[in-house]
Amino acid sequence: MEVQILAILAELVLEKLAAKTWEQIELAWNVESQRLKLQKTVSALKELLLEAEQRKNQGRQQLRGWLGKLTDALYDADNVLDEFHYHSLQRQVESRGGIVEGTVRRSFFTFTEPTFSYKMGRKIKKLRRTLDDIAADWSRLCLPELGVDMGIVQRDQSHSYVDPSDVIGRDHDKNVVIQHLRLWTGTLSVISIVGIEGIGKTTVAQLVYNDPWVVGHFRPRLWVCVSKDFDVERLIKQIIDSAEGGNCGEVSMDEAQIRLRRVLRKKRFLLILDDVWNDDRGKWLDLERFLRGGEADSKIVVTTQSRSVAAVMDSVLRHDLSHLSSEDSLSLFTKHAFDNRVQERPPILESVAQEIVKRCGGVPQFLKTIACSLYSKKELRIWISKRDTPLKLRLDGLPSALRQCLALCSIFPTNFRFYNLRLIQLWIAQDFINSSHTNEDLEDAGHQYMDILCSSCVLQRCEQDYGVFFYVQIHNLIHDRAREAAQPEYTVLNFHNDAHAHPSQTNIRHVSLSEDEWPAAERVLDVLRALGKANKVRTILCPFVSVKDIDESFISAFIERFKYMRVLDLSYSCFERLPESISDLICLRLLSLRSNIRIRRLPNSICKLYNLQTLVLLDCCALEQLPRDTKNMIRLRHLEITTKQSTFPELNDSSLHFLGIVGCIELRPLFREGQSFPALRTLFIHKCGSLESLLPSIRNLTALRTLKIADCEALDLLDGDDDGFPGFQTLWFLVIVNLPMLEGLPQWILRTAKSNFVQRIVIEACLNFRGLPQEVLQNLTILQKFEIRNQERLERLSMG
């Protein structure tokens, strides 16, 4: 495992040790002292990881062994902490009278309170001893002294100068920013230039800074490179230095802020804050209050890789930099590789140059880096050796958190198409998603991860749906490199090879089953045995195979062996029963039985999966009903379901964020009376032939962002429409496809269209729809949000 990714795992363990739930756990099981000691040890090991990152080229063999031991110990710690958390959730459910009825199986975590406290206390002590020994081993590695500053690593300081003749393809971006500098008058405002690393944010800011109109309009012009250390005192002194051309030195903070306000007083200034990472609004407000002394027409231009930073700084414009066009990319590459000397361009290199340019994906930094490395080189073999360099640069430039997300993608087949929502749920299930804000949804953070990977051309969008839903693929060469980097924790089982050819390793944690046709069940179990002593698997995926021989005993073997599984994807399987022992998987976050056409019922024991976040029962066309105690799954946030029942059982209202209802042909009322779902963000309703009305079920969905309704032949949106429902005030996207009963729009849709949040309303293939009402046609602002497609119905993405 990469050192940086291992540091993320250590941070995850520390976050779990510091969680508020420990207040209840310690009160119940008296483990406070052990937790604090463990917390101290893990914190110390995280510091050692910083040094290990600096030493990764020294004593490589010794470090590999030390890091391997630490990896196993941190995973064990994560499992134990999840076990504590599960037991805490169980107490919550039982305290509300939600004990699962029926035969209670005695699984490995079922103890009396004193027994549980004793056993878990011993586990923590054992963990702490193991981690203490690993920390002590560090001093015995006999590594060379490291004369490197271990503080925050800053990027090279940027500067304000640029020669416009050196810049290709950014005139439009410069003009957009300057246009907004002219438009927003009378107030100190912020304009953010957003894009991935190397896309040219600083270059655009330099072009703006040196534009003749800007030079004449703003005095003073100030340039500060912020980087990751957003220290207000340091930034104030840097702004003063930029204004006065001197050195603020060791003046006090009070003297510095006085000097800053004097420098800016009654002046129309332009401040460039380059490379901002801070998403703490409090820190920004601390700086911003010292900048208010200038004229109201002053401006701040920010460059950042994060949209959340732009939001925190109240940007009046967020300008997202796009990649260079193919023509501009080739021009930039040619300029730096040949210095525009046409006579020195060997024709044999032209095709290789075009291939390299294509793989750079329009990122100027990649183009310049590779072009400069090839300057004056004319040997074909050297140029060919550089063809894969852009892919390496893309991967090396990714944050560690995104590299582990990409590693999980590597165990899918080459050219596999990922539905973005499913991929994000997989990342969330493995704790790969880290929300930077307390109130930020994990799904929102996941979409940001996806945006970065797509902007970096690591993932490529291959099919777009309405709104935020789309398919992505990984470039073949990036897929291969990601798989190499992910070994040995990630592995693919190919059942057509000799079972004993699979590596018998203990550190395999993520397994996917080959896309090839499965052979006989005995052969599958033989391959399972070939995993040897590997019993810490967290992921089992088979969402792309024809699973004909899998049965209850095979699933039971998985459950018995891999107690700490986070993800179990059995999509397209054909077994009839899910074992009662499924409840033993106390850490399970994601369970998919998608497209199982034989399963009729789920055991009620599934409701004891208190950690379950995602349950996919899509296209389980024989499923008669959900278990009666579904409400006990108190962390369930993503549910996709196909069932024959006419009324859903009670669900946990407070946790559900995503609900997909597909092929529920008997469903009549959408929800039970009184259900409100205050956290629901996305609602999909497809192919529910008996559903006649959405009201009053949807009235209380106060957080809804995306609503898609399709192929419901009996649904009348006008049914129940009245003045009592003001529409949705938080909705972003509304999509209506193939509703034969739709002739006109209900008032709740028209009221929703007036919301400032709504970005798009699509009405497609509703052949009886008479058109938009006059009140919409007369209001240009509302009209721009509607898109009507009444041609022949198109096949669209539904649930991936």
From TrEMBL:
<dbReference type="InterPro" id="IPR055414">
    <property type="entry name" value="LRR_R13L4/SHOC2-like"/>
</dbReference>
<feature type="domain" description="NB-ARC">
    <location>
        <begin position="172"/>
        <end position="342"/>
    </location>
</feature>
<dbReference type="InterPro" id="IPR041118">
    <property type="entry name" value="Rx_N"/>
</dbReference>
<dbReference type="Pfam" id="PF18052">
    <property type="entry name" value="Rx_N"/>
</dbReference>
<feature type="domain" description="Disease resistance protein winged helix">
    <location>
        <begin position="411"/>
        <end position="480"/>
    </location>
</feature>
<dbReference type="InterPro" id="IPR042197">
    <property type="entry name" value="Apaf_helical"/>
</dbReference>
<dbReference type="InterPro" id="IPR032675">
    <property type="entry name" value="LRR_dom_sf"/>
</dbReference>
<dbReference type="GO" id="GO:0006952">
    <property type="term" value="P:defense response"/>
</dbReference>
<dbReference type="GO" id="GO:0005524">
    <property type="term" value="F:ATP binding"/>
</dbReference>
<dbReference type="GO" id="GO:0043531">
    <property type="term" value="F:ADP binding"/>
</dbReference>
<feature type="coiled-coil region">
    <location>
        <begin position="35"/>
        <end position="62"/>
    </location>
</feature>
<feature type="domain" description="Disease resistance N-terminal">
    <location>
        <begin position="12"/>
        <end position="96"/>
    </location>
</feature>
<keyword id="KW-0677">Repeat</keyword>
<dbReference type="Pfam" id="PF23559">
    <property type="entry name" value="WHD_DRP"/>
</dbReference>
<dbReference type="Pfam" id="PF23598">
    <property type="entry name" value="LRR_14"/>
</dbReference>
<feature type="domain" description="Disease resistance R13L4/SHOC-2-like LRR">
    <location>
        <begin position="558"/>
        <end position="786"/>
    </location>
</feature>
<keyword id="KW-0611">Plant defense</keyword>
<dbReference type="InterPro" id="IPR002182">
    <property type="entry name" value="NB-ARC"/>
</dbReference>
<protein>
    <recommendedName>
        <fullName>Disease resistance protein RGA3</fullName>
    </recommendedName>
</protein>
<dbReference type="InterPro" id="IPR058922">
    <property type="entry name" value="WHD_DRP"/>
</dbReference>
<dbReference type="InterPro" id="IPR036388">
    <property type="entry name" value="WH-like_DNA-bd_sf"/>
</dbReference>
<dbReference type="GO" id="GO:0051707">
    <property type="term" value="P:response to other organism"/>
</dbReference>
<keyword id="KW-0175">Coiled coil</keyword>
<keyword id="KW-0547">Nucleotide-binding</keyword>
<dbReference type="Pfam" id="PF00931">
    <property type="entry name" value="NB-ARC"/>
</dbReference>
<keyword id="KW-0067">ATP-binding</keyword>
<dbReference type="InterPro" id="IPR027417">
    <property type="entry name" value="P-loop_NTPase"/>
</dbReference>
